[in-house]
Amino acid sequence: MTANAPPVVGNLPAGSRNAITDVPGVSVGHRTLADGACQTGVTVIRPHAGNVYTHKVPAAAVVLNGFGKSIGLVQVEELGVLETPIALTNTFGVGTVAQAQIRAAIAENPEIGRGWPTVNPLVFECNDGYLNDIQAMAVQEADYAEALAAAGAEVAQGAVGAGRGMSSFGVKGGIGTASRMAGGYTVGALVLSNFGTAESLIYAGEAVGGRLAERLAQEKGPEKGSIIMVVATDAPLDARQLRRLALRAGTGLARTGSVFGHGSGDIALAFSTAYTVPHLADMPMPAVPMVHEARLDPLFRAAADSVEQAIVHALWHAQPVTGRDGHHRAALRELLPDLSET
């Protein structure tokens, strides 16, 4: 470990970017709002560059602890597909971003809500109200559109996009991403990290929470934050298998010291880019050989490692932020600079 690089989790190789965008076709875009008391934003994950409504991707979600206000999970559970990009934002921005997703889908597919069924927007959230004036409801539909238009292969991390106002372990949290190669496939993860108490932090296997709590001099309290974990893979998996993969994100989360506390919203979603499911009934359904159940273990390990690594990256890349009413979150490396020397 060096001062110029974050610690590495596990021994599986990472992709070329060590990001969710190592999974072919996946792209990520941010829109960051950083102005005084407004410290928030939107992050968008595109599963492929085409029309997601007409060419849906298989997906499944797992709710580890349901203290959250996401939208769209019921239909994902029922049908096992995504039909919009995945959006991340703050708690009070969910409705606005969902409406923006609906408008974007209609613009691309004018038959939605007329000759075709309606569309299922998918928005995940965490509460950034400590740093961000969440009551101002600063996120607008145009912010989703800008994040979507900005989607690309390079992923900024830390206090950007939806992660701008997020906190983790009493310090600055935010966006983190990572990838691992296993079983001949790529598994990538992106997290919106807004969880954890200082004393519980385990950083790349090192229990540093006690030292961090001392530096922060904060009173101990219950975990009230949240985390959204998105896992992508190019392995051909069906929705049932993807639910199993999403569940392993919880392993990576637990390694960092989380117990999925009472006030925490911990949600994982996994999707595959190996094939698409057509919207129109006259188009043939894909006939894709799925990965055998007995060969899923390497993917499970890759999901766990990439999620843990993504959380480490969110902490490592985060910069200090001052926001609403002068509230401040320091960066982890600012408080524990010796992490790079242990």
Automatic annotation (TrEMBL):
CDD domains: DmpA. GO terms for molecular function: aminopeptidase activity. Belongs to the peptidase S58 family. This is P1 family peptidase. It comes from Cupriavidus campinensis.
